[in-house]
Specification:
The protein is of the alpha/beta class. It is 45% helix and 14% strand. The structure holds pyridoxal-5'-phosphate.
């Protein structure tokens, strides 16, 4: 009996990254000296999840009356104010922001896809992208189209971005662009100031001809080498010509992956448009997940609004960023001389090594206890889960697997 509708009948239940991680953990438990570079969470050098103690305390202190109750559908006002404050600081453009709480950045992406694209239309993102973009699009009956991420010089291919955006304008009369910088997953690439300027110029040209929404997926913003708000400002400077969206997430920034706390923030100069956006988003929330995790949002609100706690957590996060930065520095020191081809990498959870036969290389690495994630044309290496002391063995094994 075919209970599932045809489009759902052949769905894969197995997330390939989680499956690889499970195999790595099993072999490590059996005593093998495994390097597990598959996990998308920051682990300390003992392989334990790195947690910010100040955030954990704030979470434990949430009163039961708050954690047991429903949160408002769009999210508590103080939470949304705190998120906007976190994004904008004292910028006057904060008055242009509106938004709703979402279950992590993932919820924000989902809500953007269903709010700014008609069924059957395609979002636009770079040719390397986080796999769930495709899952989210599939689930919502939308599609993914890409522009070539790197040009011949290894820089962001803004010319192809313009070409693909123009093609989408002609094909579907609107566009939703997802850009993940700094610390792009999976490549580790962060757009520099020239690339940000060039992207904004393309967006300005296209947005004059059709509605263009640009979503900045800033899931890794706190771990980058530069302030992601420069890019946000550049796009906001277009003055509402293009709609600027931010997928804000507490998962990595507050080490609260499991609490599912995030927000979709839209920036528009006109109050009337902001009301329409907020209403559409709140309706979308009600029709998908209803409301978000009250405890997680209360804890994050406190961390962002209590000056003493905020300073403490910033300091704790600074220590985690240093741990990751040291791994990145060690990787850069060894991977270049080992002739591993990978894009500019100045910080963040992942890097990506280009290769012809990712599945074959992944199998060869697995045979010697090194786990990375195969992608079309590349291997993703999650340095966030590899101790600095293991990086020489990792680089060495990868150089041999690619030879
Ligand atoms: N965007 C990217 C590129 C990610 O890698 C992730 C998480 O891994 C997210 C968004 C959203 O994460 P979450 O839903 O946990 O906030």
């Amino acid at each position: 009996m075919a209970f599932l509708i045809p489009s759902r009948a052949a769905r894969s239940g197995d997330d390939p990254i989680f499956a690889l991680n499970a195999e790595a953990r099993k072999r490590a438990l059996a005593g093998e000296p495994v390097i597990n570079a598959t996990v998308g969470a920051l682990l300390d050098d003992d392989g334990k999840l790195a947690v910010l103690p100040g955030v954990a305390e704030a979470l434990r202190a949430v009163p039961t009356a708050v954690s047991a109750g429903y949160a408002p559908i769009a999210g508590p006002d103080d939470f949304l104010r705190a998120v906007v404050g976190d994004l904008f600081g004292d910028r006057t453009t904060s008055g242009w922001a509106t938004g709703v709480a979402t279950p992590g950045g993932t919820g924000a992406l989902r809500l953007a896809v269903t709010s700014f694209l008609e069924p059957g239309q395609a979002l636009l993102t770079s040719s390397f992208y986080w796999g769930p973009y495709q899952t989210i699009a599939d689930e919502a009956e939308r599609r993914v189209e890409t522009f070539r991420m790197f040009d011949g010089q290894g820089r962001l291919d803004v010319a192809d971005f313009e070409k693909q955006l123009a093609r989408q304008r002609e094909a579907q009369g609107r566009a939703l662009v997802l850009l993940n910088s700094p610390c792009h997953n999976p490549t580790g690439y962060s757009f520099d100031a020239d690339e940000q300027k060039a992207i904004a110029e393309v967006v300005a040209r296209e947005a004059a001809r059709c509605p263009v929404a640009v979503l900045l997926d800033i899931a890794y913003a706190r771990y980058g080498a530069t302030d992601p708000r420069h890019f946000m400002d550049r796009l906001i400077d277009l003055g509402g010509q293009a709609l600027v969206l931010l997928a804000w997430s507490a998962s990595k920034a507050f080490t609260l992956y499991g609490q599912r706390v995030g927000a979709l923030v839209a920036v528009h100069p006109e109050a009337f448009e902001r009301v329409r956006l907020k209403n559409a988003f709140a309706y979308g929330c009600r029709g998908t997940w209803s409301n978000c995790n009250a405890s997680g949002m209360a804890a994050v609100t406190r961390v962002l609004s209590d000056p003493e706690l905020r300073t403490r957590v910033d300091k704790e996060r600074g220590a985690l960023k240093s741990l990751l930065d040291q791994r990145v520095a060690r990787w850069n020191q060894l991977a270049g001389p080992a002739r591993l081809p990978y894009p500019r990498y100045s910080g963040g959870f992942f890097t990506t090594v280009f290769c012809q036969d990712p599945e074959g290389a992944c199998a060869r690495l697995k045979a010697e206890g090194v786990f990375v994630v195969p992608l079309p044309g590349a291997l993703r290496v999650a340095l966030c889960s590899v101790a600095e002391r293991d990086i020489p063995r990792l680089v060495d094994a990868m150089a041999r697997a690619l030879a």
